[in-house]
Structures are given as C-alpha cells and as structure tokens.
Amino acid sequence: MTKKSMGEMSFLDHLEELRWLLVRSTIAILICATVAFFFSDFIFNEIIFGPKDPNFITYRIFCELSTKLDLAESFCVKELPFNIQNTAIEGQISLLIWTCITAGFIIAFPYILWLLWKFISPALYEKERKYAKAFISIASLLFFLGVLFGYFVIIPMSVNFFATFTVSPEIKNDINIQSYIGMIKTSVIACGLIFEMPIIIYFLSKVGLVTPEFLRKYRKYAIVLILVVAAIVTPPDVVSQIVVSIPLLILYEISIFISAVVIKNKEKEKLNA
C-alpha cells in the first residue's frame, strides 16, 4: 500500500487543517473545563489540597515502607506546618478559571490525540491508519499514568520537603496559593507529557530521526539527564530521586524496544517492495 499523496493538499490547506485542530481542541478543553467547574469543590478540597493532609495516601504508604525497612519512620509525615494564602484581589477567581482549564485539558486529552491523529494520518500508510484506536488508547494511558505519577509521587514529596524546610525558626511558611497550585499543575502536566516518550520515539523512528542504535549509544547520557531531571523535581535525597528515576529509565528502555521494532518493520517493507 502507498501513502496518501501529500500533494493532494496545498500548504494553505495544511494550515487550515491545523487551524481547525487548534480550534476544536480549544472548544473541547473549554467544554471539559465547564464540566470541571461544577466539580470545583471536589477538585480543590479533595484533589488539590489532598497532598497538604498528613494522612494523604502517599504519606501513609511511604511511612509503612520506611517502618518495614527499619528506616526509623524517616518517611512518616507527622505534620505539614504551612498555611496557604491568597494575596491578589482577583486571585481566587483567576485560580478557579485556570484550574478548571487545566482539568479540562487533562480530561480532553484523548480527544486532542484523536484530532492530532486525524491531522497526521494522511502521511501514513493505509494499514497504519487502522491503528488509530491503539494509538489513542496507549498514548492516553501513558499520559494518565504520568499524571497519576506526578500527583501521587512527585507532588507529595515536594510538598513534604518544602513545607518542612526552614532556614530559621523565625520564618513561617505562608505559601502563596498561586505558587502551590502552579507546582501541582506543572508537575502533573509535565509528567503526563514525559510519559509520552515511547509514542514520540515511535514517530521519530518512523521518519528516520531516531534509531535503536542511537538510543543505545547515548543511553549513558540519557541516564545522566534522567537523574538530573529527578534531582530537579524531587527533594534533595537519594531515595526520592531513585523513586522518580526508575519509571523514566523503564520508559527509555521501552522506547529503545519500540524503535527497534519500527526499524525492523521498515526494513521488511523495503525487502517486500
């Protein structure tokens, strides 16, 4: 089978398709944001402020693990001594709007992926266009896993560290609400997108920009980069960095396998051509 001719659409046609992709994505996000607005009490009280509670599930799990490993309950959270405050007159309204938009983006992500697939599908082989459901399902799963990883792992460790860190007992932690929620939004969205690494490697391998040999050759540099990222997004302790690094390293190895499969299939297609 051959690819659909890209010459069937002019450059302006492609720009028009891209424009409608952005318009439809924006509409989907706004619709989902509207739905999120009706659940804003739950989003704020149970989700956003969940990691502020010492009884949050992540803290309990870490405490149980540290006790079983004879770490003298070093990971048990007794209290989180900080307050959250709003300092801008329009702060809470702005906060509500942008939080709902962020929630709308997360909820609408599978639909955005479907729109993206429709946009790039003309450049794919016909048999590859049949994999739309698999692409959307896997990419959505990876994104939501990343969001959950950011929320249940990255955020609790960050909140615990920054809430208990102090340079002087004279200084009290009254954290700005924009700063607190900004950290949460950045963590979950960034982790969600980072977990898309295998999908990105798949398409880069399809167009010949990445090979498994390239990924293996630069594996040691990738490991260093992953450790640096883990050190940036986690508190400065070895255990936290290892917890964050492990899934990223696994994703990198999965990406190498995916790239190898793509290259192998491309070579088979050349032989059968």
Description:
- With 273 residues, the protein is an all-alpha fold.
- Helix 4 packs parallel to helix 7 and helix 10 runs antiparallel to helix 11.
- The chain has a two-stranded parallel ribbon with strand order 1-2.
- It has eleven helices and two strands, in the order αααβαααβααααα.
Number of domains: 2
**Number of distinct beta strands:** 2
- Biggest sheet strand order reads 1-2
Helical percent range? over 70%
The radius of gyration computed from the alpha-carbon positions, rounded to a whole number of angstroms, is: 22 Å
- Runs with pLDDT <50, length 5+? 1-7
Can you count the helices?
A: 11
Span between termini: 10 Å
Taken as a percent bin, the fraction of beta residues is under 5%
SS content category? mainly alpha
Order of helices and strands: HHHEHHHEHHHHH
Overall mean confidence score, pLDDT: 84
Shape summary: globular
How does the major sheet shape up? 2 strands, parallel
Brief synopsis:
The chain is mainly α and 273 residues long. It has helices at 11-37, 40-48, 57-68, 91-120, 126-129, 132-164, 177-194, 197-206, 212-217, 219-233, 238-272; strands at residues 83-85, 174-176.
